[in-house]
Amino acid sequence: MKREEILEKSRQEKRDEGKEFVLDKGRKSGVIGMVIIFCILAVFNLYNNRQETNSALIAMMFGYLGFEGLGLYKVTKRKLDLIKIIAGCVISISFLVIYLTKVSN
Question: Transmembrane segments in this chain: where (predicted)?
Answer without folding.
Answer: 29-47, 53-73, 82-101
